[in-house]
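Because showing beats explaining, we think one record worth quoting, sequence and C-alpha cells together, and here it is:
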Amino acid sequence: MATILVVDDEEGLREFIGEALTDVGHAVTLASDGQGALEQLRTRAFDLLLTDLKMPRLDGLGLLRAIHGEAGGTGETGPTGEIRSTGEIGPTGEAGPAGEIGGMEILVLTAHGTVESAVEAMKLGASDYLQKPIHSPAELRRVVAKALEHRRLRTFREHSLRTDPGAPKLRFEDPAMDPVAEAIGKVAPTLATVLLLGESGTGKEVAAREIHRASPRAEAPFVAINCAALSDHLLESELFGHERGAFTGADRARRGRLELASGGTFFLDEIGELKLELQAKLLRVLQEKRYERLGGSRTFDADVRWIAATNRDLPAMIDNGTFRGDLYHRLAVFPIHLPALRQRRRDIVPLAETLLERIRGDLGRPAPVSLSPAARAVLEAAPWPGNIRELSNALERAAILCDDHVVEPRHLAMPSASPGESEAAPTTLAEIEREAIQRALADEGGHRKRTAQRLGIGLRTLYEKLSRYGLG
C-alpha cells in the first residue's frame, strides 16, 4: 500500500482517480488545487503525487516550484504569483533526481499538454506525463504501479539498503542452535516484533537478517541502527530524520532510517543502551505507528517490522529504573535467546572456515587460507568470551601472520577467560590443547585411534601428548 496525493480541479475526475487507486489498497488523499495540496504536504508525507497542470489558484507547475522551494530549493514564485516559498517543508524535505522530490514520486496529468510544459514538469521532478482522458482504471493503475516501483528501486540504489545477498547467513551444526532455528522458522513469516537476546558477538544481527529473509517483507529494505554507537542527539536524528533548521548545521532536511526502512524490517541493535527520553519516543512510535522528524510537525507512517537486540538484562534494568517496562513488553513479543559460542562448540570450526574465506577476500589474498588440525583443536577448545566477533578477530590476525596459507596454533592470539568464566578455563596453548584432547577422547569413548583421527594427528603423536598431559 502507498500513500498518494491526487490534485485536480475536476471533481468527477478527482473522485474517479481516488476510487480506482483506493480499490487496489492505496491510501488516497484528494485536493482540488495546488494550494490545497501544499496544505496537505505541510502536515504529512506521501509516496506519490499525481497532479493536474491546469488548475485555479495554484497550478501544477506552480505546485512543483513551491515544493522545490520549500524543500530547500530556489523559492521561485509560481506562475499564478500566489505563493512564494519561504517555509521548510516539501514532501520529505529533500530535492532529488527527476521523478521525485525527497523520495516522493511525481506524475503529471493534463489535457492541455505541450512539449514545453512536459519538459518543465520533468525538470521540476515529474517522472511521467499522462494525457486526459484516462482510458481506464487499469491504465491509471499500471502507470502508478510503475512509478511506485521506480521509487522503491531508486531508494534501494541510493541508500544501499537491500538485504546484502553476501551477508552472513545462519548456519549451524550444534544441537544447541535447534531451538533458535525453530523459533526463527515460526516467527519469520509473521510480522510479530522480535527481541533477540544473548551475549555480545553471538550473531544477533545475523539472526535478524535471517528473519527478514524468510519474512513477507524480504524484498523490502533491511535497515539497522546501533543504539550504542551514536550520541543521543545524533541517534534521534538518525532514527527519525530532521527538518532544515532543526539544529545548528541542519542546512537541509534529511530522511531518517525509519523512513528509509518503510515497508521492510527495522533492526534496533543494543536497545538496552537507549536513554529514557528516546525510549519514550520509540514507545510512542511502536504504539501509534507514526512519528515526526526532528524539528518538524508532519507525520510519517512507521510501516516497518521491528526487531530489537540486546546483551543487557532488561528486566533488571526495569527494576533499577533505567529501562521502561512498557517498552520492554512492546519489544519482547517474541524473545529468542542465542547461545554463546562456547555452548555450541560443534559450530566453531565450520564458522571459522566460513569466516576465514571471507577474511581472505577482504585481505586480498589470492590463495585459500586453511586451518591445520592442531589449530582446529585449539579453536574448538577455547572459551571465546567474545563469541563470534572474537573468533573473527583472532582469525584475521592469524590469516595475516601465516605465510604458507595454513593457520597453525602459533598464529592464533587466544582469548583469556572473562570475569564471568571459571578460573580453571584454559588460557594457554598447552591448556587448550590438553582440553581439546580430553574432549576428543570423551567424544570417542576413549578409543585412541578414532581420537587421533578426530584430532587430525598420528596415533604415535597422540600417545606422546597423552603422556605429556597425564591423560594416559
